[in-house]
Write a structure and sequence with these properties.
This protein is mainly alpha-helical. The protein has a domain of 111 residues. Helix content is 52%, strand content 11%. The protein has six helices and four strands, in the order H-H-E-E-H-H-E-H-H-E. Strands 1-2 form a two-stranded antiparallel sheet. The chain has a two-stranded antiparallel sheet with strand order 3-4. Helix 1 runs antiparallel to helix 2.
Length: 186
């Protein structure tokens, strides 16, 4: 809708009305073209993202196939692809063994958090699987945990030392923890 107003009581001429009607028709066409262009851009972005994901997966598979049995390069490739694909600043790869979580690979960890993780022993222990922590929830549910603001998570509010370290030393605000499951085992 095009809204025109005069400050004096005087009708618009037929020519003025026709001209504004033409502008309105052109605006409808422009809006439709913009919508179509945005749809095309979205499809292009989706295809580009899909190609990037396939490329990242291909790179991981290439590292796996060229691996000489050493897992660290494979873990680094997985972490690099995972952090890149979700625009994360850093990543950890945990292994769950005998009910305990153990960090087996790290990528891009902020120095203060890396130092904290190296320092140990931690009270409570680093490998504790408290069901209130994100890692503990993933272990319990075997489902992805996605926390929009880690500072509002109950484990942070309860001052869980590892959660607090992640937020305050690592700068974590949003967290994504995805389980690695094989044959129904983490």
């Amino acid at each position: 809708m095009i809204y025109g107003a005069k400050i004096v009581p005087q009708l618009f001429t037929a020519k003025q009305i026709e001209l504004v009607t033409t502008f309105a028709d052109q605006a409808v066409i422009a809006i439709e073209n913009t919508r179509l262009l945005n749809e095309l851009r979205q499809r292009t972005d989706d295809l580009s993202e899909s190609l990037e994901q396939q490329t990242a997966a291909s790179q991981v598979l290439q590292v796996i196939s060229s691996s000489t049995g050493e897992l660290e390069p494979v873990f680094q490739a997985i972490l690099a692809s995972a952090t890149w694909s979700c625009d994360a600043k850093f990543g950890l790869l945990y292994r769950i063994e005998n009910g305990a979580a153990r960090i087996i690979s790290r990528l891009g960890i902020p120095p203060a958090l890396a130092e904290y993780l190296k320092r140990g022993p931690h009270r409570p222990p680093l490998n504790r699987l408290d069901p209130l922590t994100a890692v503990g929830r993933v272990v319990q549910s075997r489902q992805t945990v996605h926390i929009a603001d880690y500072r509002t998570d109950q484990s942070y509010l309860d001052r869980d030392p590892l959660t607090v370290a992640g937020v305050e030393l690592g700068g974590i605000r949003t967290l994504l923890v995805v389980p690695m499951i094989k044959n129904d085992a983490l």
